[in-house]
Each structure stands twice: as C-alpha cells, then as structure tokens.
C-alpha cells in the first residue's frame, strides 16, 4: 500500500523576499530598455543624417525607409526632428495607375545589368568577375537604396555616403565627450 501512495509536493513560500527574482527582473527590464533606447537613437541619428545630407540618392532612400516605418517608429512621435502631426490630418493618396509597368523589379534589375561593365577579353578570369559581382552585391545591400542604382551611380554615391558617415561619427564622438 505504501508503494501505491502518491505524494504531492506542496510549494513552500518563504516569508523572506527572495532577491533572485528581483535581479532577474531588473536584468530583463534593463535589457529591454537598452534595445528600445538603441532603436530610438538609431532612428534619430538616421533622421539627422537624412536632413543634413539632402540631394543624394542614398539620403532619399533612407528617408523613404524611415517614413515607411521600417524601424518601428510608431512610438517615436515625440522625436526631436520629426514634426508632430496627428495621423488623422495626414493625407492618404489612392491613385490608380492607368498604365502599369510590367514589373518594377524587372526594370530595376535590367537597369543594373545594363550598367554593369562589360568584361574585357583576356583581361581577367571568370573567378574575378564572379568575385566582383559578389562584392558589388554586398555593396548594394550596405548602401541605402543601393539595389535601385546602376553601377556608376552606386560608386559615386558610396563616396558621399562614407563621408557623411564619417562626419556623423565625429559629431557623435564630440557629443559623447562633452557629456
């Protein structure tokens, strides 16, 4: 009979508060705040970069990305750079396209392929060409709006983008040093 007896364990709660749940809570809370703060700072820095470097294709592409809410900026209405406008007052545009193009992706891809430099006979191996195309693809993914640019435009825009990023880093370092 003793073998068939099922014993239930009862949870015993201590009268003394346990410090472990408090530390776990604090750690999780701070980790969440760090992530939210990182998103907020990233949005503000990108917005400042867009507003200070107008006239470049990468700047326009980054602005479109920020406006689309690709960085989850719905909660950032108290942003120092973005103007505060209620959503109800924003105009909504619904204009049907009477002459739709076959596909924007196809036209962008064909534009990129037309702008690719033609390989010279005997100048290099196929391996070098493949490596060049892979590096060009990597550059396109790093550059805001790089997928929509031709090779020549991409290479000219990279210079301005790098200069803007370098200036941005210098300004942010100065801000951190003064704090």
UniProtKB/TrEMBL annotation:
InterPro entries: IBH1-like, IBH1_N. Pfam families: IBH1_N (PF26576). Keywords: Transcription, Transcription regulation. Signal peptide: none annotated. Residues 34-69 form the IBH1-like N-terminal domain. One of its GO terms (biological process) is regulation of DNA-templated transcription. The keyword Transcription regulation applies. Residues 75-96 have a biased composition (Polar residues). The keyword Repeat does not apply. Residues 75-129 are annotated as: Disordered. This is IBH1-like N-terminal domain-containing protein. It comes from Vitis rotundifolia (Muscadine grape).
């Amino acid at each position: 009979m003793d073998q068939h007896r099922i014993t239930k364990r009862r949870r015993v709660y201590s009268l003394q508060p346990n410090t472990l749940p408090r530390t776990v809570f604090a750690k999780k809370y701070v980790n969440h705040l760090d992530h939210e703060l990182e998103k907020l700072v990233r949005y503000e820095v990108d917005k400042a970069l867009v507003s200070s470097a107008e006239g470049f294709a990468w700047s326009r592409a980054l602005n479109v990305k920020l406006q689309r809410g690709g960085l989850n900026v719905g909660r950032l209405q108290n942003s120092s750079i973005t103007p505060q406008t209620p959503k109800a007052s924003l105009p909504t545009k619904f204009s049907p396209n009477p002459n739709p193009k076959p596909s924007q992706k196809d036209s962008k891809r064909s534009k990129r392929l037309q702008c690719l430099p033609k390989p010279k006979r005997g100048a290099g191996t196929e391996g070098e060409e493949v490596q060049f195309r892979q590096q060009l693809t990597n550059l396109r993914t790093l550059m805001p709006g790089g997928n929509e640019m031709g090779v020549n435009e991409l290479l000219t825009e990279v210079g301005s983008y790098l200069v803007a990023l370098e200036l941005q880093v210098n300004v942010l370092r100065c801000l951190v040093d003064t704090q």
